[in-house]
Amino acid sequence: MASQHLILSGDIALNPGPDKVENKNATAVKRNKALKCPSGEKAVQINHKRFLCEVCYDQFHAKCTVDGIRPIPGYATEFRHREDIKGGGVVVYIKEDIKYKRRLDIEKLHPDLEHLWLEVPGRNIHSKALVGVMYRSIRMLSTAKWLESLESLLSQLNVAWDGMLILTGDMNIDMLQAENSLTKQYQCILDVFGLHQVIEKPTRVTKSSKTLIDHLITNFPQRIADTGIIPCSIVSDHDGIYASINVRVPRFEARHKYIRDIMSLNESLFIEDFSTLPLSVIAYSDDPDEQLESLNSLFVECLERHAPLRRVRVTRPPAPWMKSANIQTLQKERDHLRHKAHKSDADNGVWTAFRLVRNSLKSAIRSARKALIEKAMSSNKSRNIWRVIHRILKPNPKPLRVDLDELNTHFSTTAERTFEASVVSLSDLTCLTDNLPEQSSNGDQFNLKPVTQEDVFKCIRALRSDCSTGVDNIPARFVKLVAEHLACPLTSIINKCISNAYFPKLWKIARVSPIPKVENLTSNDQLRPISILPVLSKLFEKLVAGQMSEFAERAALLPDRISGFRKGHSTTSVLLGIRDDIRHAMKKREITLMFLVDFSKAFDTICFKSTI
């Protein structure tokens, strides 16, 4: 493992000792003398302890320092003095072979904080780090103001910095006292910005107490290979803290997935082949399940002839910008010139041409990637933005390694584990509807109506082509291609379901995709189950939902302020309504109270009996 060790200091410093060390008795004798350096300076006393001078191997003398800071051979020093109070400050020692840049702009954002910031570029863009050193002293700032300034600073860094963040120093907040009010406030700020304090052992130990007040905070705890403390009683009553950080780029682990082979797909031939399928056999059965099974079988067989399902090995994250014709042409030209250049008799002209094409290819790839991301980020649809973020900007480098049966049991028993709810039988679910009074005949009753072939055709054409594929292995893209020929048999199946008040069994089966909530999984609770139903079932649901919504709007069954899943409404409608309520209350000199509730496992624990 390639690791980068950073030794950081707050108001304390982990200073290596001199090459020549005096024994205990010699030191005791010298304490009784007025020792002098060749420069004639008296010994400087810090923290009631004396340091050996590197110049004369006596005590630490004033002229052997730079601005009062002890220099260490082989290390660069960055120091920030206290501006208004004598003494103190923060200091960083960093090895001379590590490149860095002092970030005075960050320090100026909150000059009241006692902090110092360095930007370490690392070996590549993935290993860059923003390193901060901080000291909390009530002489400089009250606790309340310090917490407020810290939260504001972290908020600004959270927006402006996209790499690894490391913040360390003496915060004078004991992380071992988890129930302490100050510790809770401090931890809450860290949680808001996804930061983790990784030091676990006490850093200040006395005869009567143990406290963890020296912290190391980061936004990438998974890259921390090791942490610990180094006793340094000769320097301070605090122990030094250290962290070993893995700066290697996480490799994208190979995985397998099933995709449709569309490289040789001829859409016209596929549509023509589908139009000749014996779809009329569906009419020979009155059972919706049998009808749907016949349709799926014919559809998949035709699909396999033109775009067979393949199991492929994915070795790198998705890069859609690489499909550009210009990039592919440059790649072929680069490979050709590289082959010629590697021949023993290749002249300098071939090498020059190879380098020019190679550099042009790199520039084209960067431009194409930037253009794709900018286009997605400027979209007014949040769906497109998040797709780019999750699939391209931050793909998961590791495939999931979980037991599928265990995971299925975990997801299917969420209600039982959360509320100790028991499984509701079908008779209990239907007893409520069976005992409902008969509907009145005044015209205000709701009944599902048969759908027309035109309704089904329009619904198919309105499908998104990038919809996920269900267990029937029928992608939305191919459903849209044959919409004209599929509308008739699908209309027959849907109307049969409506007349029988039945939902086909095949459309109730979902493919569950577990989405990780965190990068490093430790339990199944950190997976979010996403149920993906067959594309054709979504058409049925959409047609039924359209009739229900139309009836609810026509009969004015929903209050005006209910905006969920309603045409012409959005979260903006809700926010505008809340704003108007608050403004009216303020004009009347009334007090406004607003309760915001977020139910845990709301959809997983819904009471089906009450819903029906």
Automatic annotation (TrEMBL):
Alphabetical list of Gene3D superfamilies matching this protein: Endonuclease/exonuclease/phosphatase
Domain Reverse transcriptase residue range list: 517-608
PANTHER family: ENDO_EXONUCLEASE_PHOSPHATASE DOMAIN-CONTAINING PROTEIN, REVERSE TRANSCRIPTASE DOMAIN-CONTAINING PROTEIN
Protein name per its UniProtKB record: Reverse transcriptase domain-containing protein
